[in-house]
Amino acid sequence: MKRSSILILIFLAISGTVGLLLYSGKGAFNPNTKYLIGQPLDSLNGVIVYYNGMVGHSDGRTLAPDGYNIGMKYQCVEFVKRYYYQFYHHKMPDSYGNAKDFYDRILEDSSLNAKRGLLQFSNNSKSKPREGDLVIFDGHAGNPYGHVAIVCGVSDSMVNIIQQNPGPFAASRDTFGLQCKDGKWTVDCKRLLGWLRKDTTLQAAGNTD
Q1: Alpha-carbon gap, residue 139 to 26, rounded angstroms
Q2: How far apart (Å, rounded) are the C-alpha atoms in residues 121 and 195?
Q3: Mean pLDDT, residues 98-104
Q4: CA–CA distances in Å: residue 19 to residues 6, 163, 168, 181, 209
Q5: How far is CA 64 from CA 71, 104, 123, 180, 208, in A?
Q6: Backbone angles phi, psi at 121, to 5 degrees
Q7: What is the pLDDT of residue 142?
Q8: Mean pLDDT of the chain
C-alpha cells in the first residue's frame, strides 16, 4: 500500500474518532452555538422538547412532584416519560433503563410490556403506529444506548416523530416511510425495534399507573 493511502486511512480513522467523541461526549461542551443547553426547541401538546447538546450530556435528574423518576435532563428518555406523565398521567412501573431497554425483545407482537405498563408492537406488526406511540430505536456504534421518540403524525405511507436529544445538529422532528404488506405494518428504519402504546382499556380500569 502506498504511503499516501496509509496517511489517508490514518486521517480518516482519527477524524472518525474525534467526530464520535464530539457527538457522544458527556461534557457540557456545546458544538452548536445556535442553541443553549436547556433551551426550548419544540413541543407536543404543551410538553416541551429541550436542546441537550451532545447526546451523552446530562444535566441532573428530572423528578415529578410525587417523586416519580422521569429521567436525566435532557435525554430522549426524559422527554418521552415527561410527555407520558403530563399528557397521559402515566407512570412506568420500571422508571429506569436506557432507551433501547424500553423494548422487550422476548415479547410477541401486541403483548403487554409490564415493565413499561404499555402495549408493545414489533416493527412488522398487525397494528399500525398511532399518534402518541413511543418508537424505540436500537443502539449503534455512536450511541449504544438507543433512542426513543413519540409519533406525532401518521399516514398510510409515513410516520412523523418528535424527539429530544437526537444530536447537536439534528432536528427535533423526523419522518420515516411506512408500508403495509400481507396485513403487517413496517416502518422503513432497520434500527427501529417497535412501538409502545398506552392501552386506554387498562387506563379506564386503573391498571397501568
Answers
A1: 17
A2: 5
A3: 98
A4: 20, 22, 12, 39, 41
A5: 10, 25, 31, 39, 17
A6: -125, 140
A7: 85
A8: 88
- pLDDT beyond 50 at 22: no
| Residue 126 pLDDT | 97
- Nearest CA to 24 among 207, 146, 189, 199? 146
Q: Are 98 and 81 in contact (CB under 8 A)?
A: no
C-alpha cell at 182: 400481507
Q: Give CA 55 to chain center in angstroms.
A: 11
- The DSSP 8-state label assigned to residue 125 in this structure reads B
- pLDDT at position 199: 86
204/207 Cα distance (integer angstroms): 8
Pairwise CA distance, residues 71 & 97, whole Å: 9
Which of 1-5, 6-10, 149-153 comes out lowest in average pLDDT? 6-10
Question: What separation in angstroms does the CA of 74 have from each of 55, 62, 106, 126, 168?
Answer: 9, 9, 29, 33, 12
Mean pLDDT of 56-80: 97
Helix, strand, or coil (residue 62): strand
Distance of alpha carbon 187 from alpha carbon 103, whole angstroms = 15
Strand 111-113: give its sheet, edge to edge: 111-113, 118-122, 192-197, 134-137, 147-154, 158-162, 173-181, 184-187
Closest CA to 49 of 37, 40, 62: 40
